[in-house]
Amino acid sequence: xxxxxxxxxxxxxxxxxxxxxxxxxxxxxxxxxxxxxxxxxxxxxxxxxxxxxxxxxxxxxxxxxxxxxxxxxxxxxxxxxxxxxxxxxxxxxxxxxxxxxxxxxxxxxxxxxxxxxxxxxxxxxxxxxxxxxxxxxxxxxxxxxxxxxxxxxxxxxxxxxxxxxxxxxxxxxxxxxxxxxxxxxxxxx
Length: 189
Hints:
- By secondary structure, the chain is of the alpha/beta class.
- Helix content is 39%, strand content 19%.
- It has a seven-stranded parallel sheet, sandwiched between helices.
- Helix 1 packs antiparallel against helix 7 and helix 2 packs parallel to helix 6 (149-167).
């Protein structure tokens, strides 16, 4: 029970959005990073790819992180992003090129942030990129122009968490009522 209390107390106000992920195991590896960095909420958009149930696939690649997270499924980027922006989330799209901010120079201390990652091959859809509030890229020094989906997620979530810690993590944690509801959900069989 103490472990549940500790986890609920450290969850952040943040969302990870995955658009049209083809391989559920890649998504599950992202879920593991979500749990590790304290991001409770994951939105999945299935517009072009076949939907999958995030609770039923990939136990090995997520180390069962999928059973500790909250999931929402959407059929379009517009539906998902308008809902998040309506809740006051700043939507940050990860992209490989175009007009972007470099991750290491970007200020990622919005009280409510939604980090959006796209398909393993195509990246984010043009619609998702256009609807985002900001666009980020991880600077690449080698010949390869992109990173694996789960590596990108881990790097971005680490940087968001690092900046939040420097700014005072308390202001970024889930509100008390949400923590209480999470604790109750975690401790139910």
